Amino acid sequence: MARTFCLLIGLSTLLFGSEQFWFSYKSVTVNGVSIAEEKNLSPVMVYNQNDATRHLCTLELHNDGKMSNEAFLKKHFDDLIPCFYSLSSHVLAWNTKHQNSQNDRVELVIEPVRFTVVFKDEFATINTFR
Amino acid sequence: MKKWIAFIVVSMSMGLMFAGCSAKQTPEEQKAVAEKAAQQALAEQKMAYTTNDAEKSFVVYGEGIAPQHTISPAQAMALAKRAAITDGYRQLGEKLYGAKINATDTVKDAALKDSRITSNVKGVIKDAAVTDATFKDGLYTVRMEVTMSTRRWHELFAY
Prior knowledge:
heterodimer, A: alpha+beta, 6 strands, B: 159 residues, alpha+beta, 3-stranded antiparallel beta sheet, 4 helices, elongated
């Protein structure tokens, strides 16, 4: 009985449990034009089950199962970015004015953050770890 | 007796009158009065910060330009949006942390030969929200806002 119960828990975790990923992003603009972007998304190597999660956002995204969650999220990376802007974003800016010329460079970095995604119905719910 | 009392009262009032007329504040006294008034004004401002406004908002408008060499108008718009948000974050950083300014002027033979100004901003912004966005004539504009309690703002940024 106990074994069956444990197996059921394990099976339900596999079926409905959320996957964990790392997310980080860097954007570089020069004189108001975006010149470089660095998009990183990868599955976590070490799971941490104990941390409390914080709801970040719910997106209108549906993974029909033809793609892995990682591939799906990478495909829709641009939809994910606004969710993570509210987290700690690092800003580095340099503005140099030399006589009549001006050079303005801004780097925006969203530091690596662990998150989970749950696909349910037509929506993807993104939660991050506190 | 009454004459004496009347004389004393009249002489005191005359004395006070003349003292009032001749009273002239020394520069030290004027400085002390000005300092006291400034301190009072500061205290009033502080009271206004601590008692009236529970929250403090910082609003900026970030602007980004659509690059010319893109594969589609959608990509140009997406990149302009990224640039606008990045600019908005920079402005928030300037407001919250301030900017480090370095300026170098070179003068030769009493004439300005070279002038360089460099400003740097470095900071971490949390919980900034994009509250509005418009795209017109290749310029993407976003309205960004950070709201925090005044007490927290005083702890972290007021210096």
